[in-house]
Fold:
Amino acid sequence: MKHDMLTTLRPLLAAEASAEAHASGTEAVDLEQAVWLRLLERLAVDAPPSDPQGWLRRAVRSEARRTRRRARRERPYATEPVADDGRDPEQLALGAARHRALRDAVRRLPGRCPRLLEALLAPEDLTYREIAGELGISQGSLGPERSKCLGCLRRLLAPEVAARGARG
Structure:
């Protein structure tokens, strides 16, 4: 019974939605979808309308009015409400993935390299004196140690970077 009613109402709904869409400032398919949803909600709690065609016409007009009222109330932002630093979500996600890959590679380094590079990458922007004190090494050996650790990191990341670049 319900399936027959939906099949019978489909052409009428398409025609009614098409007729009302332009005046409401929306797409006909959006009106159709809203009316189908209202009908399905009604069928879930109540019996089918006694006059399905009349109900459908009233529902289309009601949805069109609701859309017009919403359009009158809604105002676009004069400017974008979020900070636009030129980076889209994809760039942010790729940057975060690169950051995680770098941190993972640093943790796989031998000896005191992980602690040294973590200190160098720390958001506090520690001085060489602070890093040397934290690691218990002389400040003069920090530069050569850093160079050795960065060389290890390059060798560790080279296969991963080459593999990613080859995919294209």
User: Anything to note?
Assistant: The longest helix spans residues 142-167. DSSP finds seven helices and no strands in the chain.
